[in-house]
Structures are given as C-alpha cells and as structure tokens.
Amino acid sequence: MRRNYLLWFAGTVCLGVFGAGVFTGSEPEIQFVDAIDGSGIDFVHVNGASGRKYLVEITGSGCGFLDYDKDGYLDIFLVNGGKTPGFETKQSLNHALYRNNHDGTFTDVTRKTGILDNQAFGMGVAAADYDNDGYTDLFLTNFGGPNLLYHNNGDGTFTEISAKAGVRGNGEWSSSAAFLDYDHDGYLDLYVGHYTDHSFAHNYICPAGNPPVKTYCSPKVYGGVAGTLYHNNRDGTFSDVSAKAGVALPEGKTLGVVAGDFDGDGWVDLYIANDQVRNFLFRNNHDGTFSEIGMAAGVALNIDGRAQAGMGTDMGDYDNDGRFDLVVSNLDNEYLALYRKLEGETFEDVSAQMGLAAATRNFVGFGVKFVDFDNDGLLDLFLANGNVLDNPEVVAPGRRFAQPKLLLRNTGRAFEDVTTQHGKDLLLPKVSRGVAFGDFDNDGDIDMLVNNSGDRPQLLRNDGGNRYNWLTLALCGKRSNRDGLGAKVEVLSGGKWRYFQTLGGGSFMAANDPRLHIGLGSETTADEIVVRWPSGTVDRLRHIAARKILTINEGANAVGKGQAD
Amino acid sequence: MARGSILARVACLTVALQCTLIVLPRNAQSQTSPATRVLGTAQSEDEFEAYREVLTASDAPAVTIAAEKFLKTYPNSGLAPYVHQSAVRAYYQLGEMAQAVQHAEIALQDLPGNAVLLSLVSAAYLEQAQWEKAVDRARAALIAIAKLDPPAGVDRAAWQAQADALASNVHLTLGSALLEMSQRATQGPASATWLKEATSELRQALGSNPGSDMASFRLASALDAAHDTAGAIHYYAWTSALGASQAQVAQIKLTELCHSDSHLVSDAMASARSDIQLSTDRLRGRK
Question: N or C: which end of chain B has fewer CB within 10 A?
Fold first, then answer.
C-alpha cells in the first residue's frame, strides 16, 4: 500500500523509534503490481545478444535496493549488461541509479551522483558501508572489465576508488558479491564470486537440434575460477586473502553468494552457489580462515548426489526452529533446492517433501529469497525465472525463453505455489535474473525489483501484504560494522521466538534492503527483541508496538556481552 | 541378417534421439585454452557450418562425404564424435558395416555411454556376424537407455515412446545375437543359457513392438530351437499374420510345424491375430 507511507528517519547518527502505520482491515487481497510505468524508471537492460552465443549474454544482470542518500527510503540501482563483439545497439549501456521521491516515483541521478559510463559488461551489485562513515557504498561486479567500488561521499555523490582500494580483480568474470565482517574487526570485508573462464576470445559454439543451430554452451565446457575474499584494511584499502583464508577453490563456477552464520557460532560463514559444480559452504574457523564443508554438510549436491546449476541463493529460518536453512535456485529439470538445517553442521534436502521440487521443476530459477510477503510470520519463497537458452525449443519443444515468476507460500507444512493468486504481473513471462527485495515504499511489506535480461525491469509493489502486522528493524552498529551485518535478531511475539540475521549477499547478483523485515501476523507487539551483534554486544528491547520501522543502535539497550538472558 | 528391417528402424529412431541435444558426458572437463577440444563444441563458425553440412546432408551418401570431409578438416573437433555418429548411421543405411563399426568405435571412445551409438554398433556387429561383440554392445546400450533422462519440457510420453522403441530394437539385436550364438555353439550349458536369454530378449522386443515381424520370427525360431512347438507355431503364425518380409518363410515353417504337431494353421493364425490386436491395444493404452 502506497498511501500509508511511514517515515524512516536515519540521519548521520542512528535515531530511535519512528513511524506508525494504520491498519484499516479493509485492504484488498495481496497483489504484486508492477509499478514501473510512471515511476520515472526508464532503464532498459542490454544483454548484448549478438547471435554468437557468448555465455555472458544470458547471465546478467543484477539490481539493488539501497538508501544512498540516507533519507529513509530505498533507492534503486540497476546494473546494465553491455556490448559483445558483433553486437550493435543505440540503447544506453549504462547502469542507472534512481533516487526514491517518496511518492512512488524515482529520479535518475546516475550522472549527478558520479556513476561512470559502463565500460564493461555489468553483472552484479553489492551495497554496504564498508568504511563505517554512515553512508552506503556500492560495489559493482563485471565481465570483461574491472570491478568497481563507489565510495559514497555523503553529499549525494560517489567516487570510484576500486584501483586505490585494491578490489578491481584480475580480469575474472565476477558475479555475485557479498559484504561480511568475517574477522569481527568491525569493518566489512568483501567476497566476490567468479563464474567461468569464458571470455570473448575463449568462446565455444554449442550446436543443438537437427538441423543444428547455435545455442549457449553449458558452463561445463569452461573452466572454473576461484572466488576472491578481500580483507578490509580499515584504511580504505583491501587485501586479497583468498588463499590464506582457504576460499580459493579453482573449480568454483559461482553465481550466487550469501554470507550468514549457518551454525550459530556467532561468526559469519559463506555459502556459494556454483553452476554445474558442487556448492561450497565455507565454515568460519574464527581465525581468519574457512573450511569448505559443503559435502559433509549436505549442501553441495542435490538429493541424487548430483551437482545442480546453482544460480541464486539465500539463507533463512523458514521453519522457525532457530536454525538457518539454505535455498538455491537451479535449472529446469532440476529443482529449487531447500536445505533444512539439522543439528550440528548438517542439512537435509527437503525440496521434494516441502513441495518445491514439483513446483519448480519446469523453471530456470535465478533471483530467490526467503521473504514473508504476507507478514504471517512464516518465510515464503519468491523465485524469478527465465531460461538460459534463447532458443530452448530446439532442445525441448514447448520450452520458452521467458518464464513467469513463482511465489511459494509457506503453509507451515509445505510451500504452495500461489503465484496466480497474487497478481498478473507475476505471471508475465520474462527473462528475469537479479531480484532485489525490500520495502521501497516503507509501508510494511516486501516489494521486489527485478532486472530482466534485454528488457525493462519490474518494480513489483506489494499491495496488501501489510494487512498483518510487521516490524522493520534497521540495525546500526557501533563497535560492530555500521550496517550490523552478521547480527542475529530474536523476536518473541505471541509466545513464540523467531530468528533472523542480517545477511551479506543473497538472491542473485543483488543488493537487498539491509533492514530486517519481520511479519508478526495478528500480534500487535513484539514482546521482546534480542539483538546479538558481531561484537558480542547484546541488546534487548521489550514491548515494541507493531507496524513501525525501528532503528536499533548497538549498545543502546545493552544487557551484557554474549548473553541476553 | 535382414538388414532392412532392424537397421533401418534403429537408424530412423536414433535420428530423433541423437539430434535433439548433444548431451555432454558428466565428466566433460572444462579447459583453459580456446584451442582445447571440448566435447559438443565448435571453436569457430566454419567448424560449426561444416558440422551443419553433415547433419543437413540430403541422403546417406552425402552424409558420408560431408562427415569424412569434416573429420579430415577438423580431426580434433569437439563435434567429431557426433560426426562419427552421423557417419555410423549413414554407412549403416548403405550396408557398409565395416565403416559403420569403425566410426562407431572411435566415437565410443569419447561417448562410452551413448545409448544411440551403442545400439547402432550392436546392430552393425550383428550384421557382421560378430555375435559376442553385438551382445556386449547391446547390453551396454540397454544400461545406457535405462539411464536416459528426458530433457526438460519435452512431452514425456512421446519421449518415453522413443526410448522404448530404441530399447525394443536393442532387445531384438541382443536376442538375435544370442540366438545365433546358441545355434552355433556345441550342445552344453552355454548354449541352453543363451537360448533362454535369447527367448527372453526377443519377447521383450516383441512386447514393446508387436508389429516387428523380425522379433516375432526370431522368437518363433528360438522357441522352435527350445522344442516349444506350441510357442513356435504361435509366433510363426504371428509373423505370417503381420504379412511383412518374414511372412513367407514363417508361413512355410508354420505349415511344417502344424503338420507335424496336428495343429490347424487356421486356428494358429486366428489366435495370433487376436494376440497381435490385444498387444497392440495394450501398448496403445499404455502410451
């Protein structure tokens, strides 16, 4: 609902509790409405489809929600693709940054803010305050050019500082990236996933059909590339610590990254979705190193022991048992893999029993996230789809390049495909890639920004999702990193505890709303909120009324270090 | 061997199964150099066009010419195994079994689990009277067929029907080769085992393709060899009722057996026709 905008004040210092919504009880059924028309967003993605079937053409791109100007409203960043040999276009190849005007419209501020013309083929975006100056910075991943780090100057402009910061990379094809504070020094480090060793010079042609036509090759034909972990030196520069940290596995063909604490030890781990290669789970050893335990943990392969085509990924506690589960989007003929966390360090693939394998088998999934779209207190799943072949009918008659999205409602026992009930705009076939999740209109429900390959984006506004009560928590670290990434939040309402984390990465090449969104169902208050910060500080708040955006400053409600109870 | 019946069907079916998608083997390895050969890929537009010429050649002789040219020009192509596969089918149709086998064995080095290739080469070995090799390849083909997964989005029933038809042909090849082995072996346990296996394979072949006169004829022969006269009469009658290439020989055998076993040919024919109808209806219903 757009009419009940809440104000979210967050100045140069983090402020307290603001905002109050009005629940009239007469809201319509939840509908996702594409609000792109009339929004002022005129971005069109360029995928560089040249007819030569360069793999990069069907891979990107991502998008992001970020509040670059600290006005309390999420702005929008859309990553563009770019040119390929033999491809000509008159369309703009540039990325776009749109400032939120607080009324459902946006203003293109790309040039004004100093975002440079796109000289490469854009892939993904990550956004966080890496230097703890209170302003959200931007990191862009690229193919065919260096990655870029835009430092937010705090005056509505950015300065590109990747060379000085040491995060340009070495020409790898970079995909998803995630900020995380893996060593608890209070500064955000950066993990950058790399896809394959494909380049314009290193390209294969893969025929299919009879008579044969060219199709995009499987990533199997290309080599893997190790991801890069950059340690934040706290002086505006980063150091590549990939090898030392144990994350430089050369077989990786990474498309999705999520940084979160899967084992509850208070240290952020990394889960890496690889395409046609086993997924990696890097467990944080608390000493600056990681151990890759994906196979032992049961999150490397599918239930048949096969590597799937990992695209997007996310972490969340869908069953409210206090353990954080993982989801990975994959190709059609595979399935959206849901790994339920068990005791210790292990997971089980529950995709089939939770109804996801059947619901997703015909879809090529990309952007994916656990999201409580109806605020009923259970994390649902949203999946954006689109084939990886622009001529899939050659391989499988009846298949289409563009595909509808999937909204999968968590019933508590399984996930149910409810897409058709929640808006025709979800059903429009698109070649969707990156999806950013966030409450851009601050009305208490989660909206989605979808970047569609070679097409206009969709701004899927959630209308009616705020019928149930909610809380949005904006964490502001003091001893911990400013964004509070890696914090764990426990919420008691209606006699039940639920568990959340502020994650790095998630979805596909996307930057998501950094705030935690908590559906409260019909509960009008959160009886207790416990925030466990990466620094060890624990804050406890009691009796928080619902339907507000709440900023929680580290230490402002401290109850001790390490223990809340 | 009557090449026209088995081999033409195998060749025809394999076109459908082979060319919808070049499926990379699970162990296809990526490479770091553009010059490195990767299965299923071309490294240049010219190479792709040459491959296209092979697959779009107008007839079997044209396929062999285009294939040999491709293999000479691009000996290390990642598409070479698939070109060899096209050559196998073409040489097969032309009755040049030695060439077909040679190309097939080269292709199998890269595609050891390729069901289509295995089925083709097993049939070629059968034609060359290399029974053991035919059995070996046919068994491998059946294992490969059992592992096939339909690509996403295809009509699963139609795809399964194709796979079943391919399997039926392989059962026929396998049963035929085992029957030949049993007939050429000296009396003993091996011969009896082969004959039993042959009967089983031929029953499977006919079960999934009741219209195969070659399967019914060979099944009749196998049952005859096993002294199951009633069974032999039934399937000779079946073959005769189908009225295809084996009908005349089957009719002679049927008449001989009926005469020696006091059966009426007309009764046998009526029973066979009824069973053919039942089997066909059952199969149609399943599909």
Answer: C
Angle subtended by helix axes B60-73 and B45-56, to nearest 10:
160
Residue B57 contacts A where some CB pair is shorter than 8 Å: no
Complex ipTM:
0.70
d(C-alpha A340, C-alpha B48), whole Å: 45
Interior angle at CA A303, CA A502 and CA A256, nearest 5: 35
Q: Looking at beta carbons, which residues of chain A come within 8 Å of B41?
A: 204-206, 217, 221
| Residue A106 dihedral angles phi and psi, to the nearest 5° | -135, 155
Of B19, B38, B155, the CB nearest to A204: B38
Cβ A432 vs Cβ A19: under 8 Å = no
Q: How many CB pairs under 8 A join A and B?
A: 102
What's the mean pLDDT when you consider all of chain B? Answer: 87
And the tokens for A360?
Answer: 């997703």
Q: List chain A residues with CB under 8 Å of B48.
A: 205, 207, 212, 214
3-state secondary structure of A5: coil
Q: Are strands A469-476 and A548-553 parallel, antiparallel or unpaired?
A: parallel
- Tell me the per-residue pLDDT of A312-359, one tens digit each, with 9 for 90 and over: 999 999 999 999 999 999 999 899 999 999 999 999 999 999 999 999
Q: A561: pLDDT confidence band, cut at 50, 70 and 90?
A: low
- Tell me the residue type at A253: K
The shares of helix, strand and coil residues in chain B, as percent rounded to the nearest 5, are 75, 0, 25
Give the distance from residue B62's alpha carbon to the nearest chain A alpha carbon, in angstroms: 15
Mean pLDDT of the region B11-19: 40
List CB contacts (< 8 A) between A219 and chain B.
30
- pTM (two decimals): 0.83
